[in-house]
Design the sequence.
């Protein structure tokens, strides 16, 4: 028996909820592993990547609440919880950028370099694949629902793809050349994206919509 339009819509929202829950769980696991190896191997870039995953978890909880509300009420303005989550996320990203900047300068002056960045290669390599899959899956569901909010969430996940690529590249280069400041290049990338995401969180908190500034790019081969 063919599903009605309303039943199809409910199924799509349930899939979006499932992806949101998976995103939260993945970020927590990724964050724990990345912070552990970041501290163990003294790689600031991987530590920052892991800390970013925990901040993304806060944002992910706000998105999950948003999808539950959209499923029930349709496209409406953001609720108080979502705005609060966005503001907390914004401040956390700014704080992370400041901490990484201070530690990056300290490591540069002291000449500290990682023992190994191989865990970073593995973790961020997996992250690139997972985040591209999440981007593609969320965007397809958003288009089928004709939901600007779900599509904006998918588009904003591209920043996670780019951040993973930056840390992956710096980790690979360090494993090849073993030059300390290469890890700091990855850290600089995390700082840049943290400031960018922090600013976008505050912009979204102030607006009624769900737009993601400069997030309309596409991943090659993914639509």
Sequence:
């Amino acid at each position: 028996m063919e599903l009605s339009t309303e039943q199809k819509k409910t199924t799509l929202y349930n899939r979006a909820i499932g992806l949101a829950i998976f995103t939260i769980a993945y970020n927590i696991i990724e964050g724990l592993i990345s912070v552990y190896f970041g501290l163990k191997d003294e790689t600031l870039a991987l530590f920052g990547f892991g800390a970013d995953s925990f901040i993304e978890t806060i944002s992910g909880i706000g998105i999950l609440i948003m999808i539950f509300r959209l499923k029930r009420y349709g496209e409406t303005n953001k609720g108080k919880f979502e705005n609060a989550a966005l503001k907390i996320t914004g401040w956390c990203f700014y704080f992370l950028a400041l901490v990484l900047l201070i530690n990056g300068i300290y490591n540069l002056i002291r000449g500290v370099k990682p023992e190994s960045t191989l865990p970073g290669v593995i973790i961020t390599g997996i992250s690139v694949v997972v985040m591209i899959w999440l981007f593609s899956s969320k965007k397809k569901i958003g288009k089928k629902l004709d939901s600007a909010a779900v599509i904006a969430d998918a588009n904003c996940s591209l920043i996670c793809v780019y951040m993973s690529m930056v840390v992956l590249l710096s980790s690979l280069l360090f494993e090849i050349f073993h030059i300390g400041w290469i890890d700091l290049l990855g850290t600089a990338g995390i700082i840049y994206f943290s400031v960018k995401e922090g600013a976008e969180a505050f912009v979204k908190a102030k607006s009624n919509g769900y737009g993601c500034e400069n997030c309309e790019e596409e991943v090659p081969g993914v639509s």
Q: What stands out?
A: Residues 72 and 196 are 31 Å apart (CA to CA). The two ends are 30 Å apart (CA to CA). The mean pLDDT is 89.
